Amino acid sequence: MFSISSCRPSPEEAQLWSEAFDELLANKYGLAAFRAFLKSEFCEENIEFWLACEDFKKTKSPQKLTSKAKKIYNDFIEKEAPKEINIDFQTKNMIAQNIQEVTHTCFSAAQKRVYSLMENNSYPRFLESEFYQELCKKTCNNVIILS
């Protein structure tokens, strides 16, 4: 069973999510619904990593940038990390080198891979999920048909 905020998105919002993965991620209800779906599939580490990277890229302070980079690395990248994401060895090594001198782009390659994985794998499953279908069904039931 999925649960998101008690405040539901409008039917129109829910339908927009199927148009593009970016639409889903840009909408707070869409993001919450997608996170709940990923959690139900035991793969929420992907969206959590992606969101951590988005936050990381907005960080201005060099000290905070370094501490956030270490946290992201420890949480998602290093071997046996609690929320280890599924990326190739080469990308992991590149990140390990990149965080020696932290820049806003040190996780870019991994973030792109995770985004692509979610867009091509998790997103289509989300759109076919009972939860999303139920939102769409409610959408159809709320439409007034004029003859």
Molecular structure report:
Its main location: membrane. One of its GO terms (biological process) is negative regulation of signal transduction. With 147 residues, this protein is mainly alpha-helical. It has two domains: 11-42 and 119-142, Regulator of G-protein Signalling 4, domain 1 (Orthogonal Bundle); 45-118, Orthogonal Bundle (Regulator of G-protein Signalling 4, domain 2). 67% of the residues lie in helices and 0% in strands. It has eight helices and no strands. α4 (45-58) packs antiparallel against α5 and α4 (45-58) packs across α7 (108-128).
**Number of DSSP strands?**
0
CATH superfamily of the largest domain: Regulator of G-protein Signalling 4, domain 2
What does the radius of gyration come to? 18 Å
Per the CATH scheme, the topology name of the largest domain is: Regulator of G-protein Signalling 4, domain 2
Unreliable spans are 1-6, 139-147
Average pLDDT confidence is 87
Write down the domain tally: 2
Number of helices: 8
How is the biggest beta sheet arranged? none
**Terminal-residue CA separation:** 38 Å
Task: Give me the CATH architecture of the largest domain, please.
Answer: Orthogonal Bundle
Tell me roughly what share of residues is in helical segments. Answer: 55-70%
Category by helix and strand content: mainly alpha
Keywords: Cell cycle, Cell membrane, Cytoplasm, GTPase activation, Membrane, Nucleus, Phosphoprotein, Signal transduction inhibitor, Translation regulation
Subcellular location: Cell membrane; Cytoplasm; Nucleus, Nucleolus
Subunit structure: Interacts with GNAQ. Does not interact with GNAI1 and GNAI3. Interacts with EIF2B5. Interacts with PRKG1 (isoform alpha).
Protein name: Regulator of G-protein signaling 2
